[in-house]
Amino acid sequence: MTATTTLIVDGANVVGSVPDGWWHDRRGAAERLRDGLVAYDGTGVPGIADPPVELVLVVEGAARGVASVDGVRVESADGSGDDRIVELVAALPAGRPCVVVTADRGLRARVEALGARVAGPRSVRPAGTGGGRAHGR
């Protein structure tokens, strides 16, 4: 049986990777990202994480309070989203595969030191929204 991979998405970083007006409605942008991530619940993310996957979206600031939905757990950071992501990675059971989706170099170094792999924001952006696997990472 294949181990479940935890895929943790840096919501602010992924939303901010495409200048599509997200800054006018940060909460709405986070909800759209969450809803787009649901598609990966049963399929995994091609080239990044095979199923089964546990999808976790970390939000901060004005996006705090976005609700979880079936297939995507939303974690609201009380402070720094990066710090919450590091806490989540550190709390995983030993040997549990983990991929963090971010372009933040500082966060990348912190989670890689804990054994997580990192993928860029485009790996989870739905087609037509500035990303998707077909557009690279």
Q: What tags apply to this protein structure?
A:
137 residues, alpha/beta, five-stranded parallel sheet, 18% strand, globular
Give your account of this protein's structure.
This protein is 26% helix and 18% strand. It is built from 4 helices and 5 strands. The C terminus is likely disordered. The longest helix has 12 residues. The chain is globular. A 5-stranded parallel sheet has the order 3-2-1-4-5, with helices on both faces. α4 links the parallel β4 and β5. By secondary structure, it is an alpha/beta fold.
What's the layout of helices and strands?
Layout: E1 5-10, H1 11-15, H2 26-37, E2 53-59, E3 72-76, H3 81-91, E4 98-101, H4 105-112, E5 117-119
Parallel strand pairs: 1-2, 1-4, 2-3, 4-5
- Provide the succession of SSEs: EHHEEHEHE
Order of the strands making up the biggest sheet: 3-2-1-4-5
Q: Helix- and strand-based class?
A: alpha/beta
Shape: globular
Portion in strands? 15-25%
Count every helix, treating DSSP H or I runs of 4 or more residues as helices. Answer: 4
Q: How is the biggest beta sheet arranged?
A: 5 strands, parallel
| Distance separating the two termini | 28 Å
Gyration radius over CA: 14 Å
Count of DSSP E strands? 5
Concise account of the structure shown:
It contains 4 helices and 5 strands. The chain has helices at 11-15, 26-37, 81-91, 105-112, and strands at residues 5-10, 53-59, 72-76, 98-101, 117-119.
